[in-house]
Amino acid sequence: MARPNLTRQKRRELLPVLARTFAELGYRRTTTAELARRCEVQENILYRLWPDKKGMFVAAIEHVYTLSAAIWNRLLHEQGDGHTPAERLLTYEGKHHGEFGHYRIVFAGLSETDDPDVREALADMYRRYQRFIERQIHAHRTGSGRTRAVGQVDALLAAWALIGLGTVTNIGRELGLLGERHRRRLFAEIGRLLLEASTG
Fold first, then answer.
1. DSSP string spanning 11-50?
2. Which of 60, 90, 148, 168 has the most CB within a 10 Å radius?
3. Cα→Cα distances 157→56, 72, 117, 138, 200, Å
4. What pTM was computed for the model?
């Protein structure tokens, strides 16, 4: 019988704490001493799991995508409500987008893109979001007997536009410019337009 990978297990256990800390304090203000305190471990334990603070931050960026993907994949397998998976995802994001504050990790990372490791971690995260969303848009548009509308916006571009919509709602939340009702409407109305988007 194979022994469990204790390092991987410990990383999984501590990653949510790291992510919450980076989301709250940003990259620059977060110290490994503070991360260790919040994880209730000694700093040397963190250094056994990750090479340095940057490695912990890059892992937190990965955690942002992993958490979203787990929730989204669960939604994809729900059935019987008469909606496509893409429609269910829009409804969910309208209610819950940004509620964990993990977008603050991404915002903090954008100020660190001169570091190639952080830059690549963010680029990889966004590429994965884009591909996932593009697949759902394509499935929505081609499923259930739908035909492609004349002049319909390319699914790749619509996916990037939906990512942009999520970013705008996060900015609105962070700065107090958009209340919950308007964030929901953005996803319900503008998100729907992007799902079906046509240029003419």
1. HHHHHHHHHHHHHHHHHHH--HHHHHHHHTS-HHHHHHHS
2. 60
3. 32, 20, 26, 11, 16
4. 0.88
For the chain, what are the domain ranges?
61-196
Amino acid at 11: R
Fold for the domain defined by 61-196: Tetracycline Repressor; domain 2 (1.10.357)
Q: What is the pLDDT of residue 147?
A: 53
CB 139 within 8 A of CB 76: no
For 160-196, give the secondary structure using H, E and C.
HHHHHHHHHHHHHHHCCCCCHHHHHHHHHHHHHHHHH
- Least Cα distance to 129 among 101, 89, 159 occurs for 159
Please say if the pLDDT value at position 134 is more than 60: yes
Where does the pLDDT of residue 110 fall: very low under 50, low under 70, confident under 90, or very high at 90 and above? Answer: very high
C-alpha–C-alpha distance, residues 174 and 162, integer Å: 18
Q: How far is CA 27 from the centre of its chain?
A: 17
Count of positions (residues) in the chain? 200
Angle at Cα 70 formed by Cα 30 and Cα 14, nearest 5°? 35
Cβ within 8 Å of residue 82, ≥6 positions away: none
Provide φ and ψ at 2, rounded to 5°: -70, 140
| DSSP assigned state of 145 | T
